[in-house]
Design goal:
271 residues; alpha+beta; N-terminal domain of MutM-like DNA repair proteins; Helicase, Ruva Protein, domain 3; 2 domains; five-stranded mixed beta sheet; 25% helix; DNA-binding
Amino acid sequence: MPELPEVETICNGLRLGGFGQPSILGRTIREASVFWPKSIATPSLDEFLGLLPGQKIGDINRRGKFVLIELDRHVLIVHLRMSGDLQVRQEGDARATHDRVEFVFSEGDRLVFNDTRKFGRVWLVEDVNQVTGSLGPEPFDGNLTGEMFFSMLQGSSRQVKPLLLDQGFLAGLGNIYSDEALFLAKIHPLRVARMVNALDAARLLETIRQVLQEGIHHHGASIDWVYRGGDFQNYFRVYQRTGQPCIVCQAPIQRIIVGQRSTHFCPNCQC
DNA sequence: CACGAGACCTGTTCGC
DNA sequence: TGCGAACAGGTCTCGT
């Protein structure tokens, strides 16, 4: 589900408030409850429940697709995987069907990790690097240049689509945005990374940044996620447009499976 | 090292 | 209407 733009949207909502939810910066956790123990990656359930009370929320940031919630003595990290979400409930609000973990604030309202498919995970660690240490660079990292991206691609004999999905290569891209970026860069998803020339590599980094920026601007894509107001799904150029005409050349958009994932591209524009 | 299959889960949509 | 198959924004592990 959420890729970088959706995670960014969620972080911004928690940090700044909006869409009917208050900011949770500065809130103190009174107690935590876990309704699906497997949602907790580390530490043990007992430690997790014991360490949280009394800790205050400092800042909230994103690294790749991870949500980083700074507390006094730890960092609370959440990965939403396919169906996770972070929501704020008011005091007295009933528990929702797929609430897995909740953090009750001293004011009585609470932050809830809701996750239909139970793939999401929560970590409570002292050092963020324990969890995000193996991630590749952030797409918007100002130090990441076209030339650097070119040499990163040169170093791999893998096909570009699976490579873009590899969080250790670049952090934050998922299935939607990688298809969209490859389309704009006119690069076939099966092209071997090493065969992408310097010009195409620089262009790909630009289109990656472009589609992520568009996604953030539209508050993410809401396929079954309407409540947060994201509407990037209305601007997909290839994703989920199988058989429909390419917006550039009218050729029907094709769907293939690459690395077990649906992959959409224009067989005419991308080579 | 790279790739494919299977696992982890629930819910919705599509075809017959 | 019913029912099974296919599919979904992600990632890990295992075998080849």
